[in-house]
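Blinded run. Sample ID left blank on purpose so nobody reads anything into the name before looking at the predicted structure. Input follows.
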Amino acid sequence: MKPLSARAMLELVLALQALGALGIGLAVLYWLEASRWTALAAGLGSVVLVRAAINANNFRMAARCASPTPEEFRLRPLASLRLFLEEFAASMMYSSWHGVRGVARTRIYPECMLPPVLLLHGYGCNSGYWRRLLPRLEAARISHATLDMEPITGDIDGFARQVEEAVEALRCASGAGKVILVGHSMGGLVGRAWMRAYGTARLARLITLGSPHAGTGLAALGIGANARQMRRDGDWLRALGASETPASRALITSIYTHHDNIVSPQTSSELAGARNLAFGGVGHVALGRNPRVLDAVMDEIGRCAPVREGVGVSR
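Blinded prediction complete.
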């Protein structure tokens, strides 16, 4: 039996949500004798409220083992509301639209002088996560590819082997000697696992977004080998860190948020020896669509040495 893909999982969740909305709508229509518009609003509204409650619970659970928020990143009530709404919108858009439409893709710009970019999604996601970054790469005419890592509960070292194949395919298609890896959440750990297994000679930069470099408390609630590998103080993460040298760490940029609702403690995303860029007022899923964060990603890509001089990145 073929393992369940992220896309199939999202389609199943959407089907269950639709059945739930339909059941509530019919109950309101026939039992309460409400209008069809009221029944429709009740059905759809119930789904939205449940999804909002799940998002709120993620923030609540993350707060249990949160790291202290530095003074300059503390939020006022209105900013906290904006944080929640952006994260909720990001989660809804990915799980209800971008994820179910996401497919791995490759786009080559022969004139591109920067190393091509390989995008690595996080736990339970697929290429659809990068919907907001892809147009920026295209506008800058930077060659890039996405990778759907499967099975969704597979081990991270297995994903690293898939990355190796994708790296070689991207290098062959672009003619570049090196690539840039951009990984969200688990994808950043996959990038580090690839570095451990295959070396850094073909790597220009690894840029991680909200990656639990020292693990996250919420990984205990996940299923699969990859979730176990992302637990706090786990053997796999310790061994990964022990395998790295100052030179390999210097190739990594870790972008993270002090208000991450999945990686907790949030400072778990800090990586000694790497270039660490901290943000505030951004949630975990929203890291892939927040304009300030995407500006930073494009800046980090632009910092990589071009094939020849005179190349810049437009946003």
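Unblinding after everyone has recorded impressions. The first helix runs from residue 6 to 30.
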